[in-house]
Amino acid sequence: MPRPEPTDDDLRAAIRGAGLRATRGRMVVLGTVITADGPVSHAELAEALGGFDRATVYRNLMDLADAGLLRRFDVDHVWRFEALSLEPGDPRHPHFVCTDCGQVECLPVMGFEVSERVPAAVAARQIDVQMRGVCDDCR
Amino acid sequence: MPRPEPTDDDLRAAIRGAGLRATRGRMVVLGTVITADGPVSHAELAEALGGFDRATVYRNLMDLADAGLLRRFDVDHVWRFEALSLEPGDPRHPHFVCTDCGQVECLPVMGFEVSERVPAAVAARQIDVQMRGVCDDCR
DNA sequence: AGCGCATTTGCAATCGCTTTGCTTTTACGC
DNA sequence: GCGTAAAAGCAAAGCGATTGCAAATGCGCT
After folding, report:
1. Where are the domains of chain A?
2. What gap in Å lies between CA A41 and CA A82, rounded to an integer?
3. pLDDT (mean) for A8-13
4. A134 neighbourhood in chain B, CB within 8 Å
5. φ and ψ at A84, to 5 degrees?
6. Dihedral (C-alpha) A98, A104, A108, A110: value to the nearest 10 degrees?
């Protein structure tokens, strides 16, 4: 899931390609999310990027997510963000949430059998899947 | 999902069976959630139960959820609660949460394939699975 | 390269849901 | 009925999310 460090030109192109201004803050936010170990929260990112104001980090996360460069999802009342894969037909992978420590990690995409008694979104796999349990560190 | 009005004895037995004191507040909270049309939030419940302090409603919801009588869901940063079914069956079936209206529905247990790169809890199926998307009513 | 303007940032603050501290009240075992 | 631990009420605090406004800045155009 961690990816190679994108170049400044990569970041600038992606951001401007999404119709946004390629500001320093946005490039740093996007680059940090891309290279992160897993989904990052606003607070984690604001702390890691000491040189930017929290409100700026928040706005940049939201702008990038609205523009389609980041995926935003909700885990226990906290927004988390991760970079969208550049691969075509990016499948939404599940996430595992530790009920003890709150750690969130990405899981590989899993196939699952669908019966006919499920909502259409589930049948079409247009869903985000969260699995909750106790992680290996807390067991 | 809405259920017949439980009797006071039903409520008292359920609460005490879960190891809690069967206070008036808890019986009213549990009874209201059981008969609700769908998952209810703390704020909705506190408003509906005018005679109880908001903090008390909160604590009772949490106590009942911790005791296993209610299930708690996170929908758009708001906790929602619903009564657990008293029917025997696999308690660990997945749930589908609508990201628009917050409606939660039970899904049939699905088999899924597990690769070797997952936490032990996932491999052992000791997880709760939650799927999020737009329900059929909101599509 | 400079200008102008719309957009972004930093600072400060607010918002809404959640949670807690402390004293008084109460459920319930004996 | 008594005693005690748990629960309730009141007041307050906490936390993540979000916003207002003035200053700074990206970028198209000349």
Report:
1. 8-83, 95-133
2. 9
3. 93
4. 121, 126
5. -75, 140
6. 50
DSSP A70-107: EEEEEETTEEEEEEPP-STT-----EEEETTT--EEE-
What are residue A105's DSSP bridge partners? A96
Q: Whose structure tokens read 């899993």?
A: A110
Helices B24-34 and B54-66 pack at an angle, to 10 degrees, of: 70
The domain defined by B8-83 carries CATH number 1.10.10.10: yes
A88 CB-near residues (< 8 Å, 6+ apart)? none
**Is the torsion defined by CA of A82, A86, A87, A89 positive or negative?**
positive
Does A86 score more than 60 pLDDT? no
Handedness of CA B8, B10, B15, B19 (dihedral sign): positive
* Interface contact flag, B115 A108, Cβ < 8 Å: yes
Cα–Cα distance measured from residue A112 to residue B94, given in angstroms and rounded to the nearest whole number: 12
Query: Do residues B107 and A122 lie in contact, with contact meaning Cβ atoms separated by under 8 Å?
Result: yes
CB contact under 8 Å between B131 and A127, yes or no, is: yes
Q: Is the CB of B21 under 7 A from strand D?
A: yes
DSSP one-letter code for B85? P
CA distance B4 to B34: 8
The interface predicted TM-score (ipTM) is 0.81
Residue A61, pLDDT > 50, answer yes
